[in-house]
Amino acid sequence: MPDANARDAPEGTAASVIRISIDPVACDAYGYCAELLPEVISLDEWGYPIVDARPLPAELEAVAKRAVRDCPRRAITLRERRSRP
Question: What residue numbers bound the domain in which 45 lies?
């Protein structure tokens, strides 16, 4: 069964799934990511991000790219995986 969050793709082509990952070594717990993406990122008791492991919903992709761009430590990355039809 295909992933419910896979990007819509024409029949016979690959759909993509985007996930957020955070480098815990690079992160300094500024919290901007959780402010921008509260639907996907929460903060632990010390202010470090906890990322929802599910694929990123398509409607949050632009905001996620902004979070990646605005992270002062460049600790956030988006990983796209193409699934085969």
Answer: 15-83
Q: Is residue 3 part of a domain?
A: no
Tell me which H or E stretch contains 46: none
Residue 29 burial (CB count, 10 A):
15
pLDDT per residue as tens, the chain (85 positions)? 445 555 555 555 567 899 999 999 999 999 999 999 999 999 999 999 999 999 999 999 999 999 999 999 999 999 998 876 6
Distances (CA, A) of 50 to 10, 20, 29: 33, 10, 11
In sequence order, what E strands does 1-85 have? 15-22, 41-43, 49-51, 76-83
The pLDDT value recorded for residue 15 is 78
- Per the structure, how many domains does the chain have? 1
The CATH number covering residue 30 comes to: 3.30.70.20
Note whether residue 8 is domain-resident: no
